[in-house]
């Protein structure tokens, strides 16, 4: 093996560097469009910077900014971005076209704009709807993407105008390179999926969820598609159960269920294709809005890991991911994203199969391996984030394993690695000394034991001006990617664990001892002063 000069060895090690971003609190900008507790946040950002963090991610809420049609107020967000810049961090911005409230971890309520909800008062079919007719106001139904129901604008035109306004308002930050990623919200929780498992409607884990295509616009679309296919008698499923059912209790997902029939396959193809086309159209508009900016577009795909081991993959199917053992439901998404040079951001990378209840037939490890492999096979960048708040070494080591699934390459970039890890989320718990101490070690390991690096080009992830999306891919070409292929091999464990064993606990005990020493020392001095004054 060739021995590299010392400087080249440094560069080779740096090529394994994975930047770490931290998600800011959901309500850092309040529903009243105020920058809440800036002094507290600045102190937290300083601690993140000291821990070696590369940047932060923040939701840019449509419901806060556009309170009147085509009227945008960016003042509070500019203050926030300026603070992030002053603290030497970078920024990932989410175009959050969804409601905050109703999903796991939502601790504040930020609805979509009132003037949009007003349209829903007389036309409730603008919202996703289940078979019983229950509406979900988290995100507009993709059935209205191209219908001029909002004044003279369609839904996708609204999203486009919003992103163009963001670019204009934040042009200085974009030009300076503060903003590295624009993640485009494509559904509930900002994820490219249907709102199939809403807690606000009674769903609890590990329910299979429900299809969300019973608004009049999607019903009409399905009927037209079925008629064109020569089956005008086909209707939307009426045998797929309810939110908290298990697959075997439904006719649709059970053994030899409807999902395996010609009618079932037609429906699932239509349902999942609508989601792909929805994402494709909005990402094309995002590409136009940010054309020439030194940013990367991204879209988030949800980690629907429960019922993965069931033949039906029921929870994935209701979410819009048509994934079965003989059909890859994620590589088509990656292929669509490749047209826009977009990053696939995936969740649940902290989870292990052994942590999940057996009755859920859950397999987060296999799912992560499949989805990340899908992205790499389509030659796009893949990023990750944890789904739930975790502060333990087991979760950190799982994230490290998935970040570099075959470990460190001492001679240059590893064959596979994620482009960035976004850690969820900044808050009081993370700022606890014991949690922050271990998190700092985790960041260092994500950086491949290298010091903080401010230039992505140095770790072989340059950010270049955004080019125009490629010509539109045909749906047939996209669906060629449903052919299943073996995922790339992943190591069983990371080769750069954070530890957390004996040495970590010794350090934690030492930190606790110093804290107690300071406390009791201060009390002793106060007592002595009191005696002297007496």
Automatic annotation (TrEMBL):
It catalyses: Hydrolysis of (1->4)-alpha-D-glucosidic linkages in polysaccharides so as to remove successive maltose units from the non-reducing ends of the chains. Its EC number is 3.2.1.2. The keyword Secreted does not apply. One of its GO terms (biological process) is polysaccharide catabolic process. The active site is at residues 191, 385. Keywords: Carbohydrate metabolism, Glycosidase, Hydrolase, Polysaccharide degradation. It holds the Pfam family Glyco_hydro_14. Belongs to the glycosyl hydrolase 14 family. This is Beta-amylase.
């Amino acid at each position: 093996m060739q021995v590299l000069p010392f400087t080249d060895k440094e560069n080779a090690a740096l090529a394994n560097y994975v930047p770490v971003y931290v998600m800011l609190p959901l309500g850092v900008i309040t529903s009243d469009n105020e920058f809440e507790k800036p002094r507290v946040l600045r102190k937290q950002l300083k601690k993140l910077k000291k821990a070696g963090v590369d940047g932060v991610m923040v939701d840019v809420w449509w419901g806060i900014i556009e309170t009147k049609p085509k009227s945008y107020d960016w003042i509070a967000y500019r203050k926030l971005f300026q603070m992030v810049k002053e603290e030497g961090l970078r920024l990932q911005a989410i175009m959050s076209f969804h409601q905050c409230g109703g999903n796991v971890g939502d601790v504040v309520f930020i609805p979509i704009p009132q003037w949009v909800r007003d349209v829903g008062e007389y036309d409730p079919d603008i919202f996703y709807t289940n078979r019983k007719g229950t509406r979900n106001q988290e995100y507009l139904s993709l059935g209205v993407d191209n219908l001029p129901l909002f004044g003279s604008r369609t839904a996708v035109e609204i999203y486009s105008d919003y992103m163009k306004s963001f670019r204009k308002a934040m042009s200085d930050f974009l030009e300076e390179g503060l903003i590295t990623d624009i993640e485009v919200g494509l559904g509930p929780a900002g994820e490219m999926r249907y709102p199939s498992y809403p807690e606000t409607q009674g769903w609890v884990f590990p329910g299979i969820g429900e299809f969300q295509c019973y608004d009049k616009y999607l019903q009409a679309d399905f009927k037209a598609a079925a008629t064109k296919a020569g089956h005008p008698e086909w209707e939307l499923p009426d045998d797929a159960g309810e939110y908290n059912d298990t697959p075997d209790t439904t006719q649709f997902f059970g053994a030899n269920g409807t999902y395996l029939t010609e009618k079932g396959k037609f429906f699932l193809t239509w349902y999942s294709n609508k989601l792909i086309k929805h994402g494709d159209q909005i990402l094309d508009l995002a590409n136009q809005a940010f054309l020439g900016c030194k940013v990367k577009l991204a879209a988030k795909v949800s980690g629907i890991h429960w019922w993965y081991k069931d033949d039906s993959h029921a929870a994935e199917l209701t979410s819009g991911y048509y994934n079965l053992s003989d059909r890859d439901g994620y590589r088509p998404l990656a292929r669509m994203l490749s047209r826009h040079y977009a990053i696939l951001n995936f969740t649940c990378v902290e989870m292990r199969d052994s942590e999940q209840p057996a009755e859920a037939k859950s397999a987060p490890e296999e799912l992560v391996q499949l989805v990340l492999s899908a992205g790499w096979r389509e030659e796009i960048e893949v990023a990750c984030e944890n789904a739930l708040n975790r502060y333990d070494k087991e979760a950190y080591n799982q994230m490290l394993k998935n970040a570099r699934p075959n470990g460190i390459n001492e001679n240059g970039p590893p064959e596979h690695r994620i482009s960035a890890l976004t850690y969820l989320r900044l808050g009081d718990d993370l700022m606890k000394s014991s949690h922050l101490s271990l998190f700092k070690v985790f960041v260092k390991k994500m950086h491949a034991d290298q010091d903080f690096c401010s230039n992505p080009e140095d770790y072989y992830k340059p950010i270049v001006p955004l080019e125009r999306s490629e010509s539109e891919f045909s749906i047939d070409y996209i669906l060629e990617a449903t052919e299943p292929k073996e995922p790339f091999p992943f190591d069983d464990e990371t080769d750069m664990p954070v530890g957390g064993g004996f040495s970590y606990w010794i350090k934690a005990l030492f930190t606790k001892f110093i804290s107690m020493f300071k406390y009791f020392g201060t009390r002793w001095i106060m007592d002595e002063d009191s005696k002297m004054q007496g």
